[in-house]
Design a protein that fits this description.
mainly alpha; 183 residues; single chain; flat
Amino acid sequence: MITLSLPDFVMVLVIVCFGAFGFALGLIQVVGSLVGMVVGAWLASLSYSPLSRQMSQYFLGRTGAADATAFLIVFLLVNRLSAAVFFVLNRVFRLLSFIPFLKTFNRILGAAFGFLEGALLLGIILRAAQHFSAFPWVTQLIGESKIAGFLLALVQLASPLLPALLSVVRPASPIPNEQLPVI
C-alpha cells in the first residue's frame, strides 16, 4: 500500500480536480488553459524581472519574494487572457455539438488534458518556487515528496516548449536532473 504525505495527497488531489474540471469543461477549454499556461510561463519568464524591480521596495529587500510574485502576476494575467479567448472558441464549438459522440470525445479528451495541465502547473510552480528560493521549505518538501519528482520530470519533458522559462528557472532541486524519475 502506498502512503502519501499531506503535501503529496494535496498534489494528487489538485491533479484529480484538474482532470474532473477538464471532463466538465471539455477539450477546447482545457487546451486553451494549457496554451495559456505554456504561453503564460514563457512570457512570465521573459518579463518578470522589470516588474520585480518595481515591486521590490514593497517586499523590504526580499528579492526572491518580489521575483516570485512578479512571475506569478504576469503568468496569471496571460493565462486568464488565453482562457477567455478559448472560452469564446468553445462557445462556437457548441454550435456543432449536434454531431453524434462529439460531446463525449470533447469531455474524455478534456479530462486527459486536464490531468496533464494540473501536473504541469504544479511542476512549474514547484520549479519556480525552488529557483526563487523565497520559500525554503519547498526544497525540503520536494526532497521528501513521492510526487514532486514526477512533476519536475514532466516539466523537464516539456522543456522544449518552455526554453525561456527553464533557462531562467534552473533546477535547484536536491534531486539532480539525472535522478529525476522517468515517466
